[in-house]
Specification:
Helix content: 10-25%
Oligomer: single chain
Distance between the termini: 7 Å
Shape: elongated
Largest sheet: 7 strands, mixed
């Protein structure tokens, strides 16, 4: 029986992709013209990005003329080198690549990457930015993609056909028309989530997408290892119950009028949450696996479905790391098949629950 509403979960957990933002990022290259000798086939471009508002990552789609291949992407600025990177993929002559993090940790001007291309054609050609998506994480955990940046174009000329510095023709039949991926054309088919390949949570993530619980964080990424916050989960449960009102909770870090205030008030009133101590709820804190188990356990009790399954934790090598207040819930989650262990017979109770883990747990809860 489905205990949770698809619409309620999707409203919070789905990524809002490829929608135009109010502020366009500035994307430029190190040059707008490449001249190749008769026997030269390789050239490089440096891609730069400037954004005055905080953002969590960016994806770029470059339209490649015929006989052109992107052979290497070298990320330059340290912050971007240390971020997660989307694998380079090619669809319909457009190559996609990018970077992302788990928070809006980027702001300002960056030398994003040095791109190495191979061009084996003999005619002049045109390489252009076909699409860009600068992704911002919203307060409610959804994502907004700003695709309004003006595209750049780089002309590729052969020395023997350029006729000097003046000629501008040169693109001939090799020039590709610009293509913009708009919201209606966002490629959210699970097959394009390249960062799920080889990931343990692939099947659950694809199932969650199919059920409408999740969508991607970009056109080609699911971001399975991005953390889920405490406020996000509480809001999902609150919306499932029709957003009932409750008295103000005594949490000093839950601001009046915040997007999660009513959900936290309700969850506290119904004993689904009790805070993290010292009068704090820690809404933006990444939820731990044991906190997730406790919230779901208490939520089942609130619904009148007193959990009866009691699992055996003796096989897990880190069972002594489970907080005393979470032990009963962890036994229920394991016994009910809601929570499973990790490699090395670990429960990882103190570890952050990721999008992949949340997808897996919610799918198990819905499908049982």
């Amino acid at each position: 029986m489905n205990h949770m509403s698809k619409q309620a979960c999707a409203a919070l957990l789905s990524g809002v992709l490829l929608t135009a933002g109010a502020q366009a990022a500035v994307i430029t290259t190190s040059t707008d013209q490449i001249t190749l000798g008769e026997n030269s086939n390789t050239f490089t471009l440096e891609l730069r990005l400037e954004e005055d508002k905080p953002f969590a990552g960016a994806e770029f789609g470059i339209d490649l003329p015929e006989k052109t291949t992107l052979t290497q992407v070298d990320y330059l600025d340290q912050a971007i080198r240390e971020a997660s990177h989307t694998p380079e993929v090619v669809r319909d002559g457009r190559v996609y690549f990018g970077f992302y993090g788990a928070s809006n940790a980027f702001q300002g001007e960056y030398s994003v990457a040095r791109l190495t291309f191979t061009y084996t054609g003999s005619e002049d050609a045109l390489l252009s930015l076909g699409t860009s998506n600068v992704v911002t994480l919203n307060e409610d955990g959804t994502t907004t993609g700003d695709t309004s940046s003006a595209p750049f174009q780089v002309k590729i000329e052969r020395e023997e056909s350029s006729g000097g510095s003046g000629g501008s023709g040169g693109s001939g039949g090799s020039e590709r028309p610009e293509e913009d991926i708009d919201e209606g054309e966002t490629p959210l088919n699970p097959g394009v989530f390249t960062d799920l390949e080889g990931h343990w949570g692939k099947d659950a993530a694809l199932r969650a997408v199919e059920m409408g619980l999740f969508s991607g964080t970009s056109a080609t990424t699911f971001s399975p290892d991005m953390a889920l916050s405490r406020a996000m989960l509480v809001t999902v449960l609150h919306r499932q119950e029709g957003t009932p009102a409750a008295a103000q909770a005594a949490f000093q870090d839950v601001s009046a009028g915040s997007w999660y205030e009513s959900a936290v008030n309700w969850a506290a009133a119904e004993n689904i949450v009790s805070g993290v101590g010292e009068g704090r709820f820690a809404p933006d804190q990444a939820i731990t696996r044991e906190q997730l188990a406790v919230m779901l356990y208490r939520y089942e009790q609130y619904r009148g479905s007193a959990p009866a399954s009691t699992g055996d934790l003796s096989a897990f090598v880190d069972r002594d790391q489970i907080s005393p207040w979470a032990e009963e819930a962890m036994k229920w989650a394991v016994g009910a098949g809601i929570l499973s262990g990790k490699d090395g017979a670990r429960l990882d109770p103190q570890g952050s629950a990721t999008r992949a883990e949340a997808a897996s747990i919610l799918v198990r809860l819905l499908d049982r």
